Amino acid sequence: MNIVDTLIASGHSTTFVACIRAAGLADVFAVKGPFTIFVPTDQAFKHLPPGVFDALLKDHARLKEILNYHVVPGYHMRRDFKSGEVMTQQGTTLTATASLSGLQVNGAGVTQVDSVATNGIIHSIDAVIVPKERV
């Protein structure tokens, strides 16, 4: 299964799937790649301030920018990550913190690792991350 099908089958990424569809990225994540995606769980989206999610769905350019910030080109399993900056598909870096106890990206905890799709790797995270200029 491709990334989109794998996310749908997971059952805990329906909000992220809705976002990639709204941003017009579903075909990209279904066909192109390889990508490594840090996917916020449905619960992670509930932690956004009131109104932010609805505003994102209306602002496709910003939504696309934020979604691409969750994407790292290539196949990267958990064991491949070292602490430091990682270039995203969006064009800016995120900060990975790798330790024996786990992996974090921009402070978001990676809760599930190494879900393999035909065109990439999916890691679930417990928060929505945004590029530094959007903080």
**What is the SS-derived class?**
alpha+beta
Unreliable stretches covering 5 or more consecutive residues: none
Q: Which range best describes the helical content: under 10%, 10-25%, 25-40%, 40-55%, 55-70% or over 70%?
A: 25-40%
Element-level helix/strand string = HHHEHHHEEEEEE
Mean pLDDT: 93
The figure for the number of domains is 1
In percent terms, what proportion of residues is strand?
25-35%
Write down the Rg: 14 Å
Termini separation comes to 34 Å
Instruction: Output the CATH class name.
Output: Mainly Beta
The named CATH superfamily: FAS1 domain
CATH architecture term: Roll
Explain what the structure shows.
The protein has 135 residues and is α+β, with helices and mostly antiparallel strands. It has one domain (3-134): FAS1 domain. It has helices at residues 3-10, 14-22, 26-31, 42-46, 52-58, 60-69, and strands spanning 35-40, 71-73, 84-87, 93-99, 102-105, 108-117, 120-125. The chain is globular, with a radius of gyration of 14 Å. The mean pLDDT is 93.
